[in-house]
Design brief:
Keywords: Iron, Metal-binding, Ribonucleoprotein, Ribosomal protein
Radius of gyration: 25 Å
Cofactor: Fe(2+)
CATH class of the largest domain: Mainly Beta
Largest sheet: 8 strands, antiparallel
Protein name: 50S ribosomal protein L16 arginine hydroxylase
Distance between the termini: 21 Å
Bound molecules: succinic acid, cobalt (II) ion
GO molecular function: 2-oxoglutarate-dependent dioxygenase activity; metal ion binding
Order of helices and strands: HEHEEEHEEEEEEEEEHHHHEEEEHEHHE
Number of domains: 3
Number of helices: 10
Strand order of the largest sheet: 1-11-6-13-5-4-2-3
Helix content: 10-25%
Mean pLDDT: 94
CATH superfamily of the largest domain: Cupin
Structural class: alpha+beta
Low-confidence stretches: none
CATH architecture of the largest domain: Sandwich
InterPro entries: JmjC_dom, NO66-like
CATH topology of the largest domain: Jelly Rolls
Length: 393
């Protein structure tokens, strides 16, 4: 797998974090020296056909936009120009592309969403739009013109129900990117990219949940776990004011009662932390879990480790660690596991940092405690990690 390293002469991480990150767009010329695409256009089209992969073809001709959801088997209906194939989470489905995420680990891993890769024909693009995500876009093969404006109150248009664009913006940056160049666009900055030749672009997107998403996650969590069950109580009759019931009129007093009830729901830090960890440890694109045919036991797992060279990680699995009252926990796809001893913590760290397959020798070297072995057994039974047997290979 080839490595990608940011060119320190072009990109100073601390300077970037201090001056640009989430503040202003930036063009970084030759962010990657001698950039070599980790995927070809044909390979990208192949990834787009795989199960669980989210892809779109966006085309425009004479101002008419069209969008087709993948998997797209046949591109012959498209002209030679004016369209792009966009494929989400290519890092999860095409292992060599994961290497392009690595240089961005100067930001917390849990902020990273995915690597979206696009292939465009000349004139291809998705039109002027805003993203809710901070994004680094790396220019692979070809050349692309990028125009970026300032945040503002733009009118949204939807030339196709699944294609959100904005009406014109004034470009404050207007530059052509060459292979190895990179552009950083903070969330909310209007932009448009138009290919000047056949080209490939890599977008490293950073997840930033909105208040609405967080509150929706809180509500889901509370409903699933019988939390936040306090209900509205009338103040009528309690305030000695002899106030009459106010018919269908919702008065200030009642509104205040509802507002307070909602605010009180946000006072429990323990609950909020559980919701945050659950949300951030889940991939918004469901992972492709692979369950064993029959549940494995701990001694069965020991035999696996002896017999097979590697364990595979389910595609798209998300994990993180957190501390609660001094105790370390590991979260996998929203499920929380207590990491009770040093061995379990070592195991979790190793699994966390291994994106694809893990050599069983590395696991054996850890000399797993019985708690750690139990944990690994649970992970295998949950379909998080699996052995690729001859039948599956
Ligand atoms: C792309 O077409 O590669 C990127 C689209 C975007 O601007 O988000
Ligand atoms: Co964009």
């Amino acid at each position: 797998m080839s490595e990608f390293k940011l060119n320190p002469a072009a990109f100073d991480v601390s300077d970037f974090l201090r001056n640009d990150w989430q503040k202003r767009p930036r063009i970084i010329r030759q962010a990657f020296l001698n950039f070599a695409d980790p995927i070809s256009a044909d390979e990208l089209a192949g990834v787009a056909l795989e199960p669980g992969v989210d892809s779109r073809v966006i085309s425009s001709k004479d101002g008419q936009w069209d969008l087709q959801h993948g998997p797209v088997e046949d591109y012959s209906y498209l002209p030679d120009q004016g369209w792009s194939l966009l494929v989400q989470a290519v890092n999860e489905h095409f292992p060599p592309a994961q290497a392009l995420i690595e240089p961005f680990r100067f930001l917390p891993d849990w902020r990273i969403d995915d690597l979206m890769v696009s292939y465009s024909t000349p004139g291809g693009g998705v039109g002027a739009h805003l993203d809710q995500y901070d994004v680094f876009i790396i220019q692979g093969q070809g050349r692309r013109r990028w125009q970026i404006g300032s945040p503002g109150d733009y009118t949204t248009i939807t030339p196709h129900p699944d294609l959100k664009q904005i009406e014109g913006f004034t470009a404050e940056l207007d530059e052509v990117l060459e292979p190895g160049d990179m552009i950083y666009i903070p969330a909310g900055f209007p932009h448009a990219g138009e290919s000047l030749s056949e080209c490939i672009n890599y977008s490293v997107g950073f997840r930033a949940p909105s208040q609405a998403e967080l509150l929706s996650a809180l509500a889901d969590y509370a409903l699933d776990n019988d939390a936040l069950e306090r209900r509205f109580k009338d103040s009528v009759g309690n305030d000695n004011s002899n106030a009459k019931p106010s018919g269908w009129h919702l008065d200030e007093n009642a509104l205040q009662g509802f507002r307070q009830l909602m605010r009180d729901a946000l006072n429990d830090n323990k609950l909020l932390d559980e919701v945050i960890c659950q949300l951030l440890s889940q991939n918004p694109r469901p992972p492709l879990l692979v369950w064993p045919e029959t549940a494995v036991t701990e001694s069965g797992v020991k035999r696996y480790l002896q017999r097979y060279p590697s364990l595979q990680r389910a595609v798209g699995l998300r994990m993180l660690t957190t501390d609660v009252a001094g105790q370390r926990y590991g979260l996998v796809q929203g499920q929380r596991f207590e990491l009770t001893d040093a061995s379990s913590q070592q195991l979790f760290t190793l699994l966390l940092n291994t994106h694809l397959q893990i050599a069983t020798d590395n696991l054996l070297e850890l000399n797993l405690s019985s708690a750690a072995l139990q944990l690994l057994t649970q992970f295998i039974n949950e379909g998080f990690w699996f052995v690729e047997t001859e039948e599956q290979a």
